[in-house]
Amino acid sequence: MDQIYLSKLQITNFRNLSSQILEFNNNINCIFGENGNGKTNLLEGIYFLLNRKSFRKKTGFPQIISVESEQPEILFSSVFNQEGEYIPYTGKVQVDNYQWYFSNQPVKRKKIIESLFIGPTDSFSFHSTPAFRRTWFDHHLGLLSPEYKKTLTNYNNSLRFRNSLLAKKPAQFKEQLMANEVNFCELICQLNQLRSNVLNQLTDFLGHTFKLLFDESHNLVLKLDSKFNHKSPQDIQKILLENLEKDIVLGHSKNGAHRDDYLFEFDGYNSFEYCSLGQQKMSFLSLIFAYTELFRYKFKTYPMVLLDDVSGELDKRRWKNLIGYLQAKKFQVFITTANESFKLELEQLEGAKKIFVSDGNMEIR
């Protein structure tokens, strides 16, 4: 698959952004401005263009439409560059309807390019919140493997049915539980194997990526923390049966693939517990870019990367290494910062596009 880049973009009626036409670089695009002026809104607009949803939680049409809009609609007009061929991609989003056109043909589900968004608090959330880790891996493993996405969907459906039986306890619910259990255990086993396989593949890229990013050698390993590792469906069914009475009392499933966690080892130590915030940020960014390399290995193309003020916890040497790493790669990246020192470093980048945002107005220099 040929690498594809966002070349031009105009968004009308999106948050506080003016409807200017912006032209982008195929590599690094820097977005500057004081906090609260619209830097992250521009990243959100790009993300919405690619994913038809916001990266912000609990955000729908009423939250993203401009308060000054004359029509209740948001318009997207963009041009993508694929090996020198320029392809238009446009959209109109309304409160209960949307229309998207790729190369002037209507499309419903087609994605132009996958994207990764990394926010300023994502590293902290990843290292401190198991639910965040589970959601992060489920989403990104699903992008790598349609089989994983389908298996996870089937598992969640089976889990919801099991939890409904445990909560409502209808007549003969135990018999229904046992009938569901065989498929439920097979799905747990399949998810465990799929997760372990991808973590092993990511680990293969991690150490090298960390070295390229930060010019330091450390042993980084991802592991699946699950009581179902190396267990057969029959072994899993035995574990669930031993805990069934507890589940009945609680009214939900305490055991299953939804309780799995992920361990990030840094030189043999659990990074969640023993690493400094700087080491955690370095490890998380290494995971992100190891993932982009694995993505390219599988699909022969990179995802687009959106970095929102990620320089926190990194000293000058390390974020200079980060910039050097991004310059050497062939994927398109959009990066915001309010850090004055990081901003000065980015402003000196030759060939990078510099976009200055002030109260929603954007100026390219």
Describe this structure in words.
- The protein is an alpha/beta fold.
- The chain folds into 2 domains: 4-113 and 302-364, Rossmann fold; 125-273, Glutathione S-transferase Yfyf (Class Pi), Chain A, domain 2 (Up-down Bundle), CATH 1.20.1050.90.
- The protein has helices at 39-51, 61-64, 122-128, 130-144, 146-168, 173-214, 233-242, 244-250, 271-274, 277-299, 316-328, 340-347; strands spanning 4-12, 22-23, 28-32, 74-82, 85-94, 97-102, 105-107, 115-118, 220-225, 261-266, 269-270, 304-308, 333-337, 353-358, 361-364.
- The strands form 3 sheets. The protein has a 6-stranded antiparallel beta sheet with strand order 2-1-4-5-6-7, covered by helices on one side. A 6-stranded mixed beta sheet has the order 8-12-13-3-14-15. The protein has a 3-stranded antiparallel beta sheet with strand order 9-10-11.
- Helix 3 packs across helix 10 (277-299).
- The protein starts with a strand and ends with a strand.
- The mean pLDDT is 94.
Summarize the model shown.
By secondary structure, the chain is α/β, with parallel strands linked by helices.
What's the tally of helices?
12
Question: Which overall shape is indicated by the principal axes computed on the Cα atoms?
Answer: globular
**In the residues, how many domains can be counted?**
2
| Annotated CATH topology of the largest domain | Rossmann fold
Q: CATH first level of the largest domain: which class? A: Alpha Beta
Please state roughly what percent of the residues sit in beta strands, choosing from under 5%, 5-15%, 15-25%, 25-35%, 35-45% or over 45%. Answer: 15-25%
| Sequence of secondary-structure elements | EEEHHEEEEEHHHHEHHEEHHEHEHEE
Structural class of the helices, strands and pairings?
alpha/beta
Distance between the termini: 32 Å
- Average pLDDT: 94
Kindly report the name of the CATH homologous superfamily of the largest domain: P-loop containing nucleotide triphosphate hydrolases
**What is the tally of beta strands?**
15
